[in-house]
Design brief:
The complex is a heterodimer of chains A (323) and B (339). Chain A is of the alpha/beta class and 323 residues long. Chain A contains 14 helices and five strands. Chain B is 42% helix and 6% strand. The longest helix of chain B has 19 residues. The chains are: A alpha/beta (323), B alpha/beta (339).
Chain lengths: 323, 339
Amino acid sequence: MNVDASPPVPDPIFVLCPPLSFSSHFAAMLGQHPQLYAIPEAHLFVAETLQEWWDTCAKTSFNMSHGLVRAVSELFYGEQNETTVQLAHAWLRRRLPFTSGYIIELLAERVYPRALVEKSPSMIFHLESMQRVARMFPLARFIHLVEHPRRHGEAVVAAIKGAVAHHPNRVPQWLRQLVCFSAAHTDESSQEHVELDPQQAWLALNKNIGDFLEAVPEAQKLRVRTEDDLRDPDVGLASITEWLAIRSDAEAIDAMKHPERSPYARFGPEGARYGDDAAFLRSPSLPEPPAELDDLDTPFSWRDDGGGFSLEVRALARTFGYD
Amino acid sequence: MDSLIEQTPATNAREPASGELVSDPLFVLAPPRSFTSVVGTMLGQHPQMYGLPETHLFGCATMAEWWAACEEQTFPRAHGLLRAVGELFFGGQTEATIRQASGWLRRRSHFTTGMLMETLAARVRPRIVVDKTPSVVYRVKFLERVRDLFPRARYIHLLRHPRAHGESVMKFIEEFRKRHGPIPESHWLLHLCTYPDLSPAASGVVERSRELDPQKGWYVLNHNIDEFFKSLPDEQKLCVRGEDLLQSPDEPLRRIAEWLGVRADAEAIDEMKHPERSRYACFGPPGARYGNDTFFLESPALRPARAKSQSLDGPLSWRDDGREFSAKVRELAQRFGYE
């Protein structure tokens, strides 16, 4: 009888944060730890089943499927090229009735004994998506990655300006939503002009995460400030590895300081080019730390009306330790 | 917190690969309150068998349906399967492993219930799984689902005298009221003794009888099994009177073991006389306390005294009008060998 067999693959580690919050670098850093493995953005938990995920991929204004296709190519077919991308597509098609959690379990089993790290920002837009993760992986660990709202706002504004410069009529919906967070801007086809106010998204999405984490046991959640990891990665990363109860020695920490060594830290082949933030794919090395501390009082650099952070944004930012 | 990493993979934790041969399970069929907990557990203690708690799988076609049914039920329907998955795939029954089991089952919402059972059977191979979920006898179509999914499965129709059965149901109702207060009308216990008539369709009738008379439930559910048995080859079915098995277990257990083609030596028979040694013969951890009859969980050892002889004649103790068993109940009971 097989009942004495050892415990199965551990539940994954999920990084929760709004898009453009350094999560690509952060997750890739975690994934370089010898006992962890980070996959690109799989976006699985927006759906209950892979069929629903597949249908959603067909409707979105960004390349939602690329991350999962790259992960399947790499993990089940040994590399990422045009042929393995085709094979990965077929592998996924054959599993369309599977639950999204079961697909993650298959990936986690494939990387065992390393623990899987997942970081799709799409799951934080709706409480239901995060609750689906917790339902399917009740012992999962969650890292809430926070960033100063000014730094985040500047990243969002830079991203939308870049997108408009390249394809003024094809700005992805998620990016438009980040710039002006509102339920009214969920229409994928709309390209109407919106006012730049990324603080709303920062507030709403971080509150979503906070609301979800309230129901998660203390031992399964950790908040990490991106700035701390950038300023002193040795200390910041060691505190995370200790929390995860994995190796914290110099060799392991040093490996984490090289996100560029991830097999996903570059553009993918034809048919699966992305799967991560384009800025990360272009420049995946550990970025320089911010030159100076951000503050909550100075007017926005991206607006000329002297506007600044709302009281609610300031209050939440202070709970994260920002001034 | 324990390390995530210092664990080795359970390479056989996944469902069986195509072509792997897993023995079709043994199903113990009976209405609730018919010794199924003790007998199912006894059989599961045989060194070549493995008894599960009540999985309640086959009332549903898929695990997604099973989850939905669990959320609607008036009893903790999920507990047995959570305990089994916790035990078999996560190394024990603790609050943490029950949570893991819940995630494992949620991730398998796309499985058919048969695939889930096959996964459990593969996990305990080469032992034969013993399933004893009374809910499967409420509809012939549930039983037919089992047959379609496991065409070589074996079935034991576990019988109990209708008088002892009725008295047991009424005692359980009384005990429930003492412990928990009024019983909701939709509760399975009331459902079992408020069948409007003796027709097979009575199980699905919404308008229940107002009088408590468990002989009707006894009849309809045993009749369901009886009808289902007509579709099975002889070598796959066996009728066993619970009273015989509990009063003098050696011979009936030997006969069952021989019929199943498993060891029938004294050591194997002796193992079966200790249901209390099962990992499920106790209350489970928070999140999965039950998964079996409460009385059995409180006192799981074999107690022959509770299987005393009864008669089909005489007034029914649960009625105050002096009425006796209906002719159809008597006829079916006599066919089962009761007097």
